[in-house]
Amino acid sequence: MATFQDFKLQDYCNEVIKELGFQKPTPIQEKVIPLVLKNRDIIGISQTGTGKSHAFLLPIMSRIDVNKDCVQAVITAPTRELAAQLFNNAKTFTKYLPELRVSLIVGGSDRQRAVNKLSTQPHVVIGTPGRIKDLSLDAQALQITTAKTFVVDEADMTLEFGYLEDIDAVAGKMSDDLQMMVFSATIPQNLRPFLKKYMQSPVTIEIDSKLVTTANVEHILLATKHQDRYDVLKKIMATIDPYICIIFANKRTEVSKITRQLREDGYKVGEIHGDLEPRERKKMMRQINNNEYQYIVATDIAARGIDIDGVSHVINMQFPTEPDFYIHRSGRSGRGNYTGICYSMYDTTDEKNIAILERKGIEFKNMQLKNGQFADLGQREKRKKRIRQQTELEKQVQMIIRKPKKVKPGYKKKRKYQVEQVVRKQKRAMIREDIRRQKKERARQAQIAKRMEEGNDNW
């Protein structure tokens, strides 16, 4: 097992490690840091909570030459909140190296003021793709051509939000010997042409998602059937007493609707989604960080890297569209030495995603909420999981169609098909015989009735 001392980072980086209380590198840090120092291109696939941010920040900061007044590294994130979080992590390094200049470049702020600040170029740029493109290519105030390192964080979200064209434009202005690192929970097919275009023999590092599905989280399924999901939500909220609970919905419009309904019902709730104006988002994040809300309604933007301390409960109004997003959501709770509970409403359309998550190592409890109490319902789909017993007819047919002395590949499947064919024929024959008997019996009964009507006692 490697130690941070093995990486031979600069002294100020080691001071940051001490301040953060890092004891030993996480699996992704152990693999990524040496490769960054060797100037390799990297594709890192990992979930939230793996220590990914410092896996690239530590080696990048260690290589910055503060004597050069130019941009040396550019790091992008798909949202202002994620960029601000990375920026705050990076600012820690400036405490121990005051000459280090790190700039946060995001939308929602005065453009001219941002341009004026760039009269002195930063060493490290952290921001959103659109604003970095704007200030570097359009305003030409940010000189990114000198950067030797480019990091695309949360690449799948970057693609989903439609920022890949901005990333492409920014990367196209950088040097040919650019070191590129891409970090993502998943690598969608639409992202691969971009990776192939800019990356030279990248090393792919994938951290098994089983390692990061927090063991401290209890996973509970609640079948909604014909119930209104908002009513189910209210019942859950009446039963639990969280420190902080995040309520996830799949769409921004759904988040707004749930937030409005809860506020009308007297709850003080926060909301996080992409439709909030920049000023509203800043104010909301400040209030959330000040623990002003016990409940926060959010889209997946809150599950992907935004740290909200003290989350004890998660409620999923629907299962997310991607199974891995469930891991991000549930991983908001149960951090460190704390425990968490994740409640998920589901119906039959979610069975496929549930099965995928179970194969990843998540153990769900199937429960019902009744009279303010959670009751364990045992296994889901009991009828499907029950082993069907052979009928007497199938046993008889199987005895007739014996196993061949010399078997060939696929004989079991072939024999099973033969048995099924014979059983079907036998059943059809039995049905025909039963119909014939019923017709005969009906004819006999009709004949008896006719004779009785005629008064014939000799029948």
From TrEMBL:
<dbReference type="InterPro" id="IPR044742">
    <property type="entry name" value="DEAD/DEAH_RhlB"/>
</dbReference>
<dbReference type="InterPro" id="IPR014014">
    <property type="entry name" value="RNA_helicase_DEAD_Q_motif"/>
</dbReference>
<keyword id="KW-0547">Nucleotide-binding</keyword>
<dbReference type="InterPro" id="IPR027417">
    <property type="entry name" value="P-loop_NTPase"/>
</dbReference>
<feature type="compositionally biased region" description="Basic and acidic residues">
    <location>
        <begin position="450"/>
        <end position="459"/>
    </location>
</feature>
<feature type="domain" description="Helicase ATP-binding">
    <location>
        <begin position="33"/>
        <end position="205"/>
    </location>
</feature>
<keyword id="KW-0378">Hydrolase</keyword>
<keyword id="KW-0067">ATP-binding</keyword>
<dbReference type="GO" id="GO:0003724">
    <property type="term" value="F:RNA helicase activity"/>
</dbReference>
<keyword id="KW-0347">Helicase</keyword>
<feature type="short sequence motif" description="Q motif">
    <location>
        <begin position="2"/>
        <end position="30"/>
    </location>
</feature>
<dbReference type="InterPro" id="IPR001650">
    <property type="entry name" value="Helicase_C-like"/>
</dbReference>
<dbReference type="GO" id="GO:0009409">
    <property type="term" value="P:response to cold"/>
</dbReference>
<dbReference type="GO" id="GO:0016787">
    <property type="term" value="F:hydrolase activity"/>
</dbReference>
<dbReference type="GO" id="GO:0005840">
    <property type="term" value="C:ribosome"/>
</dbReference>
<feature type="domain" description="Helicase C-terminal">
    <location>
        <begin position="232"/>
        <end position="373"/>
    </location>
</feature>
<dbReference type="Pfam" id="PF00270">
    <property type="entry name" value="DEAD"/>
</dbReference>
<dbReference type="InterPro" id="IPR050547">
    <property type="entry name" value="DEAD_box_RNA_helicases"/>
</dbReference>
<protein>
    <submittedName>
        <fullName>DEAD/DEAH box helicase</fullName>
    </submittedName>
</protein>
<dbReference type="InterPro" id="IPR014001">
    <property type="entry name" value="Helicase_ATP-bd"/>
</dbReference>
<dbReference type="Pfam" id="PF00271">
    <property type="entry name" value="Helicase_C"/>
</dbReference>
<dbReference type="InterPro" id="IPR011545">
    <property type="entry name" value="DEAD/DEAH_box_helicase_dom"/>
</dbReference>
<dbReference type="GO" id="GO:0033592">
    <property type="term" value="F:RNA strand annealing activity"/>
</dbReference>
<feature type="domain" description="DEAD-box RNA helicase Q">
    <location>
        <begin position="2"/>
        <end position="30"/>
    </location>
</feature>
<feature type="region of interest" description="Disordered">
    <location>
        <begin position="436"/>
        <end position="459"/>
    </location>
</feature>
<dbReference type="GO" id="GO:0005829">
    <property type="term" value="C:cytosol"/>
</dbReference>
<dbReference type="GO" id="GO:0005524">
    <property type="term" value="F:ATP binding"/>
</dbReference>
